[in-house]
Amino acid sequence: MSSTPRHPLPHAPAPEMNAQRRRLLGGLGAALGVAGGGLGLSWATPALAATGVAWQSWGTGALPIDTRNLRTDSARVFDLSVSSADPSLTGVILWTHITPGAWRAGEALYLQVALDAQFQTLLLQAVVGAEDVAQLQAQRDGTERIDLDGQLPATLAGGPYFYRFIYDGTVSRTGRCRTLSSAGSALKQLKLGLLTCQDYTNGYYGALAHLARDESIDFVLHLGDFIYETAGDPRFQSLPFADRAFTLPSGGVVAMNLADYRALYHRYRSDANLQAAMERHTFICVPDDHETANDCYWDYARDTLGAPDHPYTTDPAYGNSAALLKQLKLDSQRAWSEYVPARVTHNPLATHPHEALKIWRRFQFGSFLDLFMIENRSWRSAHACGEAQWGGRYLPATSCTAYTASSQTLLGATQLNWLREGLTQSTAQWKLMGNQTLFSRLAITFAGAQVAPINIDAWDGFQAERQALTSALKEAKVRNFVVATGDLHTYIASQLRHNFGNVNNLDVANQIGVEFMTPAVTSSNLGEMLGAKLTPAQRTLLMQGLAAPAVKTLNPHIQYFNSNQQGYSTLEFTTNWVEWTAYAVDKAISDPAVARTCVARQRKFVDWPWMVAQSTQGL
Ligand SMILES: [Fe+2]
User: Fold this and answer.
1) What's the pLDDT tens digit per position in 97-107?
2) Is-contact 165 110, C-beta < 8 A?
3) In angstroms, what is the span from residue 57 Cα to ligand 1's centroid?
């Protein structure tokens, strides 16, 4: 992928707009420069490793370095480029990484944010002192996370803004970021890119190249599996992409410690297409299981991580050690907080994962849309029917129905209460839940009744909690509830029902909302896993001819089901409708100019309970 061409810098504003903005921002910039005395002269974050990076505002005056002849071989210093995350009304988190070989004692890091890609209209400059840069190299693996909340003007449009870092005479690539719009009820449109499951070893990120080029996207939601904890695991990573293979520091194929997780993030974030997507869009990320270990959960009985397929559990040499598993969770949390920017507080000194990191959070797009990003893996209880794959986690034995028990929790009580209160009290037109595992029922059924769920690693394994949530939504008459989901390496569009056994589509009170599952970027889908011995054509036939109709017949709330391709999707909200548009991009093609095909488009009109399939022609 090293020959992949970079994308051009973002468009500069039109000249007349530029002049207008410059006048406007002349005032704003000056105001921020003055305000910098209050905003920036004290260290922003004293707890360095906990919340990010201590930095000082430099106003908009000349930096104490020569910026006329900066080196532009940015990867020499900023090997993982730049990215932005977690918009607020007046800020965003900016991220970069200084490669260890480029670190020099006594060298400070500078940041510039401007209204234009040429940095003519500076909004603010910041400096991270040389001593702090040195500490970040030691404590955060060289990752820098600067939270600008409170520093940018609250504007109707929420940007875009442009930013770059400068270190040791070298300038980074230019990133583009957005803040939340201050338009409130005047906001009439929002378009989100949706991503999940980007197994680096399992293909190329052409989908991310397309996403990077899509100028219509406002923000990107990453719903988990940003990394996989494995590198070349023959169970599901046996596809022939030799140039995507790599070795973990510990020498095995599964992450065992902090160094392994850091190496995984470093490798993933070295990808040119992922870098382009993260340079061009502001991301909002939550982890799923593979940021730690496959199908992981919290083992309340032993007060440690449950990781049924991890060597610490399965290899007798490690004795299923509770201490090793707890440390593994802590290591994965730490690496995530270093390499995936988010406005969350990570405490690296915590010895219990529940005290180290809280990930769920809310983003309010005025009165137009409330986004609740939830986290499925840190508080969920063990799989209800045991940890065996078949007969346990997937398609449990019919003798076990413990997945309906009220003791099964996916979110934990605190997160569930936060979510329930937030959703039922929200006055926004749209309520969006950023979710990991499938919320809808996916089961073998008879006459509408559930015979056996197919995957109780998802919400089907926590049916009482799901019902508690949908009961609250039903009671509060919450309308326009939308769930965006990842995890299953499948495209799904589904009606959400309070009682999935009630197949009467006209029972409007039973309709809770809609769910859209975005496909994997590269990870093996069900077609590949079930049809490993078939040719691609046979596999397509199997999945299209058998799986989708069977799934839809047994689960009539599912309107679209496709587990035969990879790609990404978008979710566009207007005051009249929400529309999910799903694309397929061939993961076997390394050229970022790879073709993109629209495979599904579903629209739900506001206050109307059902979704309607739309044409995919010409998209
Ligand atoms: Fe995945």
Assistant:
1) 999 999 999 99
2) yes
3) 40
Structure token pair of residue 383: 């799989």
Dist CA 517 CA 602 (whole Å): 12
The residues near 536 (Cβ < 8 Å, ≥ 6 apart) are none
Residue 205 Cα to ligand 1 middle (Å):
15
| Residues within 5 Å of ion ligand 1, judged at the Cβ atom | 197, 225, 523
pLDDT at 28: 33
Tell how far the Cα of 420 is from the centroid of ligand 1, in angstroms: 26
What separation in Å is there between the alpha carbon of 347 and the centre of ligand 1?
Answer: 27
* Banded pLDDT at 54 (limits 50, 70, 90): confident
pLDDT of residue 95: 98
The single-letter DSSP state of residue 518 is P
- Which segment of 119-133, 206-220, 226-240, 536-550 scores lowest on mean pLDDT? 536-550
Domain 49-177, CATH homologous superfamily name and number: Purple acid phosphatase-like, N-terminal (2.60.40.380)
Q: Using the CB atoms, write b or e for 273-307: b if 16+ within 10 Å.
A: bbbbbbbbbbbbbbbbbbbbbbbbbbbeeeebbbb
DSSP 455: B
* CA 11 centroid distance within chain: 26
What is the Å distance from ligand 1's center to 345 Cα? Answer: 25
State the pLDDT at residue 238: 65
Mean pLDDT computed over every residue of the chain: 89
Q: Return the domain boundaries, the chain.
A: 49-177, 184-613
Q: Global pTM?
A: 0.91
Q: Is the N-terminal amide bond of 160 cis, ω within 30° of 0? A: yes
Q: Within its chain, how far is the Cα of 202 from the centroid? A: 19
Q: Domain 184-613 classified CATH 2.40.30.10?
A: no
Report the DSSP pairing between strands 369-373 and 430-434: parallel
- pLDDT for residue 533: 66
